Amino acid sequence: MDKFTVKKAGLGIGILLYGGLLLLLGVEAGAEKAEGVSGQEYVVSYGDTLWGIAERHQEQAGKRDVREMVYTLRKINALDDGYLHPGQTLILPETW
Fold first, then answer.
1. How far apart are CA 28 and CA 33, in angstroms?
2. What is the enclosing helix (H) or strand (E) of 93?
3. CB 40 within 8 A of CB 84
4. Are 50 and 70 in contact (CB under 8 A)?
5. Residue 74 backbone phi and psi in degrees, to 5
6. For residues 37 and 91, is the Cβ–Cβ distance under 8 A?
7. Which of these, 26, 55, 53, 27, lies nearest to 41 by C-alpha position?
8. 53, 90 Cβ separation under 8 angstroms
9. What dihedral do alpha carbons 28, 30, 36, 42 form, nearest 10°?
10. CA-closest candidate to residue 75, choices 54, 45, 47, 44
11. Confidence at residue 68, expressed as pLDDT on a 0 to 100 scale
């Protein structure tokens, strides 16, 4: 192996390690829910979506726009995306 190949391999490993670190830090940051938010705990079932959960609680929220409710759910539960997993616990706010 020549020096160029070794440097290239070292650079590739460095980039992978840096990317892994960023991913790990991003997962940790997204895992924290908003502090000071009180509400009811909701355990996600298979097939649940944020939209469906918001629709089911729309009456309680005073017929609020479902899009705003989905945004609120994502914000207070620190969800970077809309993917839910069965068994995951969400906080449904007392006041939407």
1. 11
2. strand 89-93
3. no
4. yes
5. -65, -40
6. yes
7. 53
8. yes
9. -110
10. 54
11. 94
- How far from each other are the two terminal CA atoms of the chain, in whole angstroms? 63
Angle at 17 between CA 6 and CA 31, to 5 degrees: 170
E strand or H helix at 39:
strand 39-43
Q: Mean pLDDT of residues grouped by 10 in the chain (96 residues)?
A: 60 60 45 68 97 92 90 95 94 88
Are 52 and 82 members of one domain?
A: yes
State the total domains in the chain.
2
Length of the chain in residues, anyone?
96
| pLDDT of amino acid 88 | 97
Same domain, 25 and 39: no
Query: Which structure tokens are listed for 54?
Result: 């918001």
Q: Provide the pLDDT for residue 28.
A: 40
User: 41 with 78, same domain?
Assistant: yes
Beta bridge partners of 43: 89
